[in-house]
Amino acid sequence: MIRIHRLLSYILIASLLLFSLLPQFASANPNSASFSLEVINDKPISVGDEIKVEVKGINLTDVFAYEVNLDFDPSLLEYQIKSASASMYGFSVPVIDGLTDGHFQFAFSKVGPVPGVNGDQSLFTLTFIAKESGTASIEMKDVKLVDSQLNATVPVQTAVVKKSINIAKSVKTLASAITSITAPLKDGTVLTLPSVPEGFTLAIKSSSNAAVISNDGTIVPPILETMVDLVLEVTRTADGAKASSPSISVVVPAKSTTQSTTASDIAKAITTITAPAKDGTVLTLPKVPEGFTLAIKSSSNTTVIATDGTIVPPIIETTVDLVLEVTRTSDGTKASSSSISVVVPAKSVVESTQAADIAKAITSIKEPVKDGTVLTLPMVPEGFTIAIKSSSNATVIKTDGMIVPPSVATTVDLVLEVTRTSDNTKASTVSIQVKVPAKSYNGGSGTETGNGSSGSNNTPSTDKDGNHIVTLGEMNTPAENGKVIIPVLGAVKQLTLPYNTAQLLGQNQLEIKTDKLTLDIPVDLIKQLTSGLSAEALKDSTISLKFDPLSASEAKALITKEQGVSQADIKLFGEIYEFKLSVTNADGSSAAVLTKFDQPITIH
């Protein structure tokens, strides 16, 4: 084996020495061989694509070894290291010292006492990466050949072989470069999209307001000037490759008004107001058509936004509800908009701003939505943090902000604490009432009492499908001998439990008493079910326990199967139940299912 390796090395070295002795296009032993460069990609080339190039010999005569020198444009092309591969069996050496200058050399030699190649033959292939768009060129300027007798020959062809390659911008590059769209003219009905190079198409992928600009580019001129956010999609027609532009805002002018346009028409169309910038002192109102004026009719907090539009930047982010008034100048008729919420950012803080300043400004907390599980606290400026200091009902709103939706609407008094991070000074807010809506409940909703007690419609029940929704009130039943006992009326087939049942039970077991049986459910079984789920995954879910009795035929088949396995005489003296414990998402899908229990459910 060592001798074979040495022989290969000697043959290659001899061939390369011969190459170095040959002058470029020497006239010794000429033949009629010629060469070609071919790009073998099967699709148009864009920036980032691979470019596969094949070097071919035509009308070759006894070619045993060769050396090919190529020049390429290094600003547009990048050679892929180790991509050069000879098309014949033998030994090859790619010389890459000049790659940065755009020069590539490839030498090859067959091995052993074998004849050279005759006729047309692929010599080798190599791969480039398209770096930039433009017209790149690859040139074959010098070829040296050696026959099977190790005689150097030089082909008659003396003209440089050159291949030009058109490199287009990539779909992604084209799409990312589209950052604006020409605004339509007043009363225009068709949107003009930017132009793209030949071989590409452009269309609207999504519109934030399809009633004004649809995905086919049709415009329905609005009553008020309207901003629409569009995302465009570039497609390369050759292969269907696609890429999306960034979101682009297009301002569509208000349509021309007519004599029949009323102040009410304008007011009805006003549904939003652009939020002011941080430390802004003047509110920008929506634009109304010529012949109409607009003003603030009322403000829910004139100390932040006055009716003349003046803003006094607040210490904390503040939401102000405004009602605007439209006036038609021709006859003085007026109309009011609906109430519109405007979020005013907190003003920039200065070193003298204290935690007490921030705490004093906090007088309300946004009410949670129905079945919400996380309380949204007021925003505080940078350099401060906020947390719940105390809760009058931690079973509904915990101090970490988690909400356990109650069976009846409940008012909870919270005190928040503001901390200045620079020196850890703290200050508390006044007590703030938060109303938590009753959770969704098929058995009837409660009425708010302020202290969380239920109204007359809060009696738990079982629905027509045999599903009993366990209420928070039932879960909070005092434990007896380490068990939280919940009596259930009706033909129950399924229990729906709160997602935090294990937390509510603590160390207690759950006992369900139905008309037919009593179930003892270990709390560790609930923990086994939910152990693989995050708090985020659990927060909008419920826990379901199904216990369906098997039919007589199913029970008989199961008994027969178990008798065969255990070789015991098994007799049935009651019903057999199939249990399934699962976590159900808000959309009805299952997040986790438990059919094999680490601890048993006891039936008696």
Architecture blueprint of SSEs:
Blueprint: H1 2-21, E1 34-39, E2 45-46, E3 50-63, E4 65-72, E5 77-79, E6 85-86, E7 91-95, E8 103-109, E9 117-130, E10 134-146, E11 152-153, E12 161-168, H2 171-177, E13 200-207, E14 226-236, E15 242-244, E16 248-252, H3 263-269, E17 292-299, E18 318-328, E19 334-336, E20 340-344, H4 355-361, E21 384-391, E22 410-420, E23 425-428, E24 432-436, E25 467-469, H5 472-475, E26 483-487, E27 494-498, H6 501-505, E28 509-513, E29 518-521, H7 523-530, H8 535-538, E30 542-549, H9 552-566, E31 577-584, E32 590-594, E33 602-603
Parallel strand pairs: 2-12, 25-27, 26-28
Antiparallel strand pairs: 1-3, 3-9, 4-8, 4-10, 5-9, 6-9, 7-8, 10-11, 10-12, 13-14, 14-15, 14-16, 17-18, 18-19, 18-20, 21-22, 22-23, 22-24, 27-30, 28-29, 29-33, 30-31, 31-32
Describe this entry's structure for a reader:
It is a single chain. The protein is mostly beta strands and 604 residues long. It folds into five domains: 2-168, Immunoglobulin-like; 171-252, no CATH class; 277-344; 355-436, Immunoglobulin-like (Sandwich), CATH 2.60.40; 467-603, no CATH class. 13% of the residues lie in helices and 35% in strands. β31 (577-584) and β32 form a beta hairpin. It is extended, with a radius of gyration of 40 Å.
Shape: extended
Helix proportion: 10-25%
Radius of gyration: 40 Å
- Report the structural category: mainly beta
Indicate the proportion of strand residues. 25-35%
Total E-strand runs? 33
Number of continuous helical runs: 9
Largest sheet: 7 strands, mixed
